[in-house]
Design brief:
7 strands; 4 domains; about 55% helix; 17 helices; about 375 residues; Nucleotidyltransferase, domain 5
């Protein structure tokens, strides 16, 4: 038997590459992508893969890029676990600079074992934040309406960013409180709402508007028994259409929600509830108030959708991946900047007006000019009185 051996050196590209280049570790990847991550902290591993391949003509494994991004974020902002300890510094500074503001931090005891010995340690669980200007402004100048919701964080801490928002006299979003919860459970929501009630109490005609999350439904009834609890009509309609389809529902469901007339609402509901299966579904899954004809007359907010909370979630979308203390402080900055902007607008345009121009415009549009002269007269008298 004869064995033949190739006398030439191996020239396969993969062989040459493995001899000349060592696979990059996640720390090396972090050094490469550091500037990209600093410019855009929200950039994902897939986009970073493409940038590396475009610049270095080399495909890096997804998980290695992901771990490299985590290390790059640590190099830019500090280690993730250290940010939880900084929450106490954030709490101290807020309460020092803004007396009356509240930052509540909740911890839990976690058991772990080392070499067979069981030990315990305190770990972060949830946090609640409400500034004096926010909760006092709600009591002094806002209608008794709160839109409550949460949005999932997309950083390393997989919790929920909760918020409670009101509506001011200009019909603008007015943040009252926010915080981080470990999950959307009845217990965590009850803790958040209990802290909020400790500040605002139970104003007359209070309305809580939610997306009908089961844990939140239970917590609202527990913290504010008997409060008017509204359900987001957009979520109700989306869930309803998954079960029932047909023109009769398309024509009557939203109409039943939007009308102020009890008689018209009952007529639309008669068409919708013709089938017993629909009656059973509505009785089991949608027991909260979702139609205007049953709204109380004190609140003076006729929203059927929970759009205020969704607007807040949209505003904070870009900061949800930051370290927890950086995220909370970034939201604080956003609130302060917005309040400052609104104060300057009020001083420049609304000072001396009994009714702000936007409300006059809306009333004029609805009344077709019938009361425009009266509003102008009221504003003239008010201006003369102030002068």
């Amino acid at each position: 038997m004869q064995i033949k051996v190739c006398p030439f050196s191996h020239t396969c590209p993969t062989k040459l590459r493995s001899e000349k280049f060592k696979p990059a570790k996640s720390r090396g990847v972090a050094d490469v992508i550091l500037d990209w991550v600093r410019k855009n902290p929200d950039i994902g591993p897939t986009a970073l893969q493409e940038k590396i391949e475009e610049k270095y003509h080399f495909t890096m494994p997804y998980m290695r890029v992901s771990r490299g991004k985590d290390k790059a974020m640590d190099m830019i902002s500090g280690k993730w676990k250290d940010s939880f300890h900084l929450l106490y510094s954030f709490k101290a500074e807020v309460e020092k600079c803004s007396p009356g503001s509240v930052v509540e931090i909740d911890k839990e005891t976690v058991k772990y074992s080392i070499k067979g010995k069981v030990r315990e340690k305190k770990c972060f669980r949830r946090v609640f934040v409400s500034f004096k200007a926010c909760w006092q402004g709600f009591l002094d100048g806002c209608r008794p309406y709160l839109a409550v919701d949460s949005t999932a964080l997309n950083g390393r801490f997989k919790g929920q960013l909760a918020s409670a928002c009101a509506i001011d006299g200009r019909n603008w979003l007015y943040p009252v409180a926010y915080g981080v919860l470990e999950t959307e459970s009845s217990e965590s929501w009850a803790w958040f709402l209990q802290n909020l009630r400790g500040l605002i109490g139970h104003p007359e005609g209070l309305v809580i508007h939610t997306d009908a999350c089961k844990g939140l439904e239970t917590a609202v009834e527990q913290v504010w028994p008997g409060v008017e609890h509204r359900e987001c009509m957009r979520h109700l309609a989306a869930n309803f259409r998954k079960k029932f389809k047909g023109k009769v529902y398309d024509d009557n469901l939203w109409a039943a929600s939007l009308t102020f007339s009890s008689r018209k609402h009952n007529w639309h509901m008669k068409q919708i509830l013709a089938k017993k299966s629909v009656q059973k579904y509505m009785a089991e899954h949608h027991t909260k108030i979702w139609y205007r004809s049953k709204f109380n007359e004190i609140c003076k907010v006729d929203y059927v959708n929970n759009n205020l909370a969704e607007s807040f979630n949209s505003k904070v979308r870009k900061v949800k991946s930051l370290l927890i203390v950086d995220m909370l402080d970034k939201i604080r900055q956003m609130i302060m900047e917005k309040f400052d902007l609104r104060m300057r607008i009020a001083l420049e345009k609304w000072l001396g007006h009994l009714i702000i121009p936007s409300v006059i415009k809306a009333l004029h549009a609805k009344s077709k000019g019938k009361y425009l002269v009266l509003f102008q007269l009221i504003n003239f008298i008010t201006t003369q009185f102030n002068n």
